TrEMBL record, chains A, B:
Its cofactor is FAD. One of its GO terms (molecular function) is FAD binding. Belongs to the FAD-binding oxidoreductase/transferase type 4 family. PANTHER family: D-LACTATE DEHYDROGENASE, D-LACTATE DEHYDROGENASE, MITOCHONDRIAL-RELATED. Its EC number is 1.1.2.4. Residues 39-216 form the FAD-binding PCMH-type domain. InterPro entries: FAD-bd_oxidored_4_C, FAD-bd_PCMH, FAD-bd_PCMH-like_sf, FAD-bd_PCMH_sub2, FAD-linked_Oxase-like_C, Oxid_FAD_bind_N, Vanillyl_alc_oxidase_C-sub2. It comes from Mesobacillus subterraneus. This is D-lactate dehydrogenase (cytochrome). Keywords: FAD, Flavoprotein, Oxidoreductase, Transit peptide. GO terms for biological process: lactate catabolic process. The keyword Acyltransferase does not apply.
């Protein structure tokens, strides 16, 4: 496609400026990987649009030259979503990073897809508001919508899909649609918001998002509770949920992970299975919630519970939790990260984590177990030596064991990271005939398979 | 289709028993209307399946004979969803009304589509659980999922779509799929749960639902606050939401509606614009929420606020609110009900309600204004003399004025009742090119247009 490539560059430069089109090797390399172990593959070109109209023009040209398109935020994906295995053009949204409108009274914000979560929260703070979804990484909001990201606060505030009121989307036929509206609820037409969120760039390209935001809670209280075993910690979470205490965050971190945290963040948390908790509410209500929670964790053999009353200490706690993945990366130079991501009905979580722990040990791997246990979502975080095929194989065996266990219990292969290329082989097993429906939708909306081709749906590799 | 009709009856009786197939006139009449003003139209046949397999067999025969299918719960729809304007077969789900499984620890319940909301709540009470969506009418859960119903508690617990974890669906090609799983969240594949909820029988027929349920709150407090004007009441709600008080219900009822309530329910509530409120939480937290709310409503010129501490009084309050539609029907014998159903961003609600009040008066109509104002959703409830074409015309003018105002403000033509036939003409205006995406999805999944044909999507009538 040497000549074609020249032609499309020529055509792109008619609708974009010189600086917005790059075939530079180092730029291409930056867009050929994500934060995971998935192998690299470079785009032929990287473009940097500044407007929705420019995105639509790019789609038009991609159509004309039959060139694949992959949207790209900051490359924090964990299953190879943004890696252009079919090459073609990567659309980098770093120049579309404006917060367009804060509708304070409506608890809504309108942003371009390249805005990051921390950038948004910095702005919202001026209004006493915050954006709730917190996947750890400082991802772009466009990327978070594309994978239906979630994280530490989802147990209370919901996942990315719950926050999206409207998306502006460029379709494969280059038309520009809006998938929703500004109302808090609607029963009008098919739920396109929900369909496009989590579609990983395979159905359309997001050019603007209208998101729900929340008032910063009147009072916030953080806590750390350590337990003699992982199982005790998980059962304590199940009991807290049963009790109806409206917990805002509840994170499990195992002893391995706490060790990495202590090394990386220079903390000295006790190296036992630990829950990091957070409560939001009014002062009197919080006090009662905390008393009740303390009783519950003590019934589950809690070794120690510490409440962080100072804002700074509490922030340090969550910063340590959020830096966990980076702590592992930092502690294992030269290795690559593989993270499992299953989610199960809460009654099956304790069994699943025991099973995972045994599988990690029996495969001779080392890794941390952590997760958003209030949602039934946990991760095994492994650092892999990519020059050792046998180690890669064992890590993949572990991932498969964990996924199959979750599917047997009515769970899902991915709670929040998405399918990308890493979870494709489990789609048939998880969705059965529903996968045919997904394929029909893809075919109807992107008949030439130009939008992030062969992600999510791929018939070649199946378990 | 006389002969075809005989043939299909013959074929149906091979897969269903004698009692499960009816061409009886009075049975057909019961399935030819809903609770609204939309004109009647009878199905040719009504079938009463008992299993998913039987539903799949019915779809198979409908395909073979090219006969339209309309699923039917209890006929409580308000926009003609269940009326078979193309005739064919109505599938009545009254024999599929079992609560299959209560997964107490997972806060999940599995039900057949014919189970009603009150039937479910009666069972759940034994476990200390409740199902949150409360549209007033005792609708079936299948019907509620089909229209993405919501109601009084949605401001806290969300709409029907937020509760659906999994649907078993029979598709037009008679295959049986599951749209989700039992995990609290998932990023695996396209979000078919969200797509099928609200699809009004046009994409598939639901044969089983897995729904999220909640623990009955530790403490519940109800209140009634009356205001000198509708505007003051609405502005009070906006301030309560701004304040971050986690209100569980907040219903506006205007003076006309309170009058109907008093007549029908033999209550003596003061006949001024009133908010019905409810708070869920722990005792200490509630106390603080209530104090704060009282301060807020007083700033908005509240005439009187009464807290209902007795469970019985509080139940009577909500029963009165729920019976409001029936109170209007009872108070206007021989007339039919038309209810507007727009939803707007909360900052636009007060203006919208003032506009609606003026429009009602200037068109010389009488009706009540009420609604789930915490969501920005309100209704004008009109009783129409269907023998008076001029009155019908004025009512339709009102509906159109209200819808167009809502759309201009970024709202939706239907917050919770759905499109059916009543809101079809606004789909193009509301969705623009996104309607093409919906049409493509319909075409991909139901190429012969046999599933509730010409509902939601209909090109013939557009504003």
């Amino acid at each position: 496609m040497e000549t074609d490539s020249m032609n499309i560059v020529h055509a792109l430069k008619k609708v974009l400026s010189e600086q917005q089109v790059s075939a530079n090797q180092s730029v291409r390399e930056l867009h050929g990987r994500d934060e995971s172990y998935h192998r690299e593959s470079l785009p032929d070109l990287v473009v940097f649009p500044e407007t929705t109209k420019q995105v639509s023009e790019i789609v038009n040209l991609a159509n004309k030259f039959k060139v694949p398109l992959v949207p790209f935020g900051l490359g924090t994906s964990l299953e190879g979503h943004v890696i252009p295995y079919e090459h073609g053009i990567t659309i980098d949204f770093s120049r579309m990073n404006k917060i367009v409108e804060v509708r304070e009274k409506d608890f809504l914000v309108r942003v371009q897809p390249g805005v990051t979560r921390t950038q948004l929260n910095k702005e919202l703070k001026k209004y006493g508001l915050f954006f709730s979804v917190d996947p750890g990484a400082d991802a772009t909001l466009g990327g978070m919508a594309a994978t239906n990201a979630s994280g530490t606060t989802s147990v209370k505030y919901g996942v990315m899909r719950d926050q999206v009121r409207d998306l502006e989307v460029v379709l494969a036929d280059r038309s520009i649609i809006h998938t929703g509206n500004l109302a808090a609820k609607s029963s009008s037409g098919y739920h396109l918001n929900g369909l496009f969120v989590g579609s990983e760039g395979t159905l359309g390209i997001f050019t603007e998002l209208t998101l729900r935001v929340y008032g910063i809670p009147e009072h916030i209280m953080a806590a750390r509770a350590s337990f003699p075993s992982l199982n005790d910690a998980v059962e304590a979470v199940v009991s807290i949920l049963q009790s109806g205490v409206p917990i805002a965050r509840v994170e499990l971190v195992d002893e391995n992970s706490i060790r990495q945290v202590n090394l990386y963040s220079e903390t000295s948390y006790s190296e036992t299975p630990t829950l990091f908790l957070e409560f939001h509410g009014n002062e009197a209500g919080l006090k009662q919630d905390i008393e009740f929670t303390t009783e519950i964790v003590e019934e589950h053999f809690c070794l120690d519970i510490q409440f962080e009353t100072e804002n700074a200490t509490s922030n340090r706690l969550w910063e340590a939790r959020h830096n966990l993945a980076y702590a592992f990366i930092h502690g294992h130079p030269g290795k690559k990260m593989m993270v499992t991501d299953v989610c199960l009905p809460i009654s099956k979580l304790s069994g699943a984590i025991s099973h995972a722990r045994e599988a990690v040990d029996s495969l001779g791997l080392t890794g941390g177990i952590l997760g958003h246990v209030g949602d039934g979502n946990y991760h095994v975080l492994l650092m892999i030596d990519m020059s050792n095929p046998e180690e890669i194989k064992r890590a993949e065996q572990l991932n498969e064991k964990i996924v199959l266990y979750a599917l047997e219990q009515g769970g899902t292969c991915t709670g929040e990271h998405g399918v990308g290329v890493g979870k494709q082989k489990y789609q048939q097993k998880e969705h059965g005939l529903a996968l045919v429906v997904m394929e029909k939708i893809k075919k109807a909306l992107d008949p030439d398979n130009l939008f992030n081709p062969n992600k999510i749906l791929n018939k070649n590799e199946r378990v």
